[in-house]
Amino acid sequence: MLLATQLERVFILKDKGQDIRLTDPEPRWSVEAVMNFYANMYPILTTAKASAPQIKDDTVEYKFESVMGTKG
């Protein structure tokens, strides 16, 4: 018999050189909705994009990466 289980989503935000692990507030939300949810606490997320999901340690991991460039 084959069992299917839904993997937990985890969101990784890199801020000031540190990886911040964010839990999934609502599994039914889209990745963009989760990013908007956390944007109040982490303003850098307003200009970020989500990477393609990767499966690590029985979780689905998304990375929020800033699209802001450096000037100069």
Plain-language structure description:
By secondary structure, the chain is mainly β. It has one helix and five strands; from the N terminus they run E-E-H-E-E-E. It has one helix at 31-38; strands spanning 8-15, 18-23, 48-50, 54-56, 59-66. Strands 1, 2, 3, 4 and 5 form a five-stranded mixed β-sheet that branches. A hairpin with a 2-residue loop joins strand 1 and strand 2 (18-23). The longest helix has 8 residues, at 31-38. It is elongated. The model has no long low-confidence stretch (mean pLDDT 89).
Radius of gyration: 14 Å
Element-level helix/strand string: EEHEEE
Low-confidence stretches: none
Q: Please bin the fraction of helical residues.
A: 10-25%
The percent range for strand residues is 35-45%
Largest sheet: 5 strands, mixed
The structural class is mainly beta
End-to-end C-alpha gap: 59 Å
Approximate shape: elongated
User: In total, how many beta strands?
Assistant: 5
Query: What is the averaged pLDDT score?
Result: 89
Quaternary structure classification: single chain
The number of helices is 1
Pfam families: Prok_Ub (PF14454)
Protein name: PRTRC system protein C
Organism: Flavobacterium pokkalii
InterPro entries: Prok_Ub, PRTRC_protein-C
Short summary:
The chain is mainly beta and 72 residues long. The chain contains 1 helix and 5 strands. The radius of gyration is 14 Å and the shape is elongated.
